[in-house]
């Protein structure tokens, strides 16, 4: 039991890229189309869909548990601290699920797989390189607010805590640095970067800090947004360049500079090698997407991503 808990979680060997090619050949193109439409309506949605998959996978595996609404009997993940007023995109996933149920003539594609595909399609729509998504995940029949509070890393963590957190999900320091590159997209609220802004001035670019001070005062305006890199709707390596220049928005982003040993300059490596980032980011997303999936007879294919199937 203890040994199993210490070992890496099962990185889903049963998943395959062509899982739906017989049962619903139009599923993937339908999802891609709807993700593209959602991003056209609101470019930030791509970022939000990538993060939704990350927060799903880090809480008991990539099992769609984040999508379950609270019930009288269950307090789920949506209102947990890292997710409440923060995770977005639930309505887009609902729209995709209904459309996919229609084109598949039934309930065939899991919510967990939709999250993995929507993340990939967002990355590609915003300029990243494509990768094959492994499929065949099934959906959880429960969700846990406590697990979401405990298992998702916080932006206030130092590097060792971030590394421990990733290791507990079977992910390495290298994976941490590559996957943090997800912050090439999207925004953070003031309450998550205020501490860095006012208490870490020695590692901040003064012009960058001055611009943010206006938007994120020492008190108030908790919900004011700033982008996580200079180009929040483009998948590129500006995120890593920003870290090197003292323009990391989150404490956790800046911490990536403090690696020790053989891997000590991964931030510089990705800043200098966009091609490597595009390649490695896709591979790392596949690895993250393989955290403890439910397969075989475990779990279910949810008809509606917000509720466990009835009966
Ligand atoms: C390394 C540990 C990580 C920490 C501490 C962290 C923390 C955060 C925080 C605090 C925000 C802002 C939330 C808000 O303002 O409400 C955020 C946004 C975001 N994160 Fe992370 N994150 C981490 C890793 C990742 C990973 C692995 C990915 C994806 C591969 C990712 C993708 C995103 C995206 C795309 C956004 C912007 C979402 C949007 O604009 O809607 N993050 N993250
Ligand atoms: C979620 O956020 C809302 C609005 O900020 C707040 O009123 C509510 O108490 C939060 N819920 C939990 C469970 O923290
Ligand atoms: C800055 O650090 C001090 C001392 O640790 C703490 O009391 C204060 O709340 C921090 N300020 C912000 C904005 O986080």
UniProtKB/TrEMBL annotation:
EC class, as a word, reads oxidoreductase
Question: What are the catalytic residues?
Answer: 55 (proton acceptor)
Q: Which residues form the Plant heme peroxidase family profile domain?
A: 14-309
Q: What does this protein's record comment on cofactor binding?
A: Binds 2 calcium ions per subunit. Binds 1 heme b (iron(II)-protoporphyrin IX) group per subunit.
Give the UniProt subcellular location, in the record's own words: Secreted
Co-factor(s) = Ca(2+); heme b
Any idea which positions bind substrate? 153
- List GO terms (cellular component aspect): extracellular region
The protein's site described by Transition state stabilizer is found at 51
Q: Which GO terms describe its biological process?
A: hydrogen peroxide catabolic process; response to oxidative stress
A molecular function (GO) held by this record is:
lactoperoxidase activity
Tell me the domain of life. Eukaryota
**Catalyzed reactions:** 2 a phenolic donor + H2O2 = 2 a phenolic radical donor + 2 H2O
- EC number(s) stated in the UniProt entry for this protein: 1.11.1.7
Q: Where do the annotations place Ca(2+) 1 binding?
A: 56, 59, 61, 63, 65, 77
Q: Which residues participate in heme b binding?
A: 183
Keyword Cell inner membrane part of the UniProt annotation: no
Q: Which family does it belong to?
A: Belongs to the peroxidase family. Classical plant (class III) peroxidase subfamily.
Provide the protein name. Answer: Peroxidase
The organism is: Eleusine coracana subsp. coracana
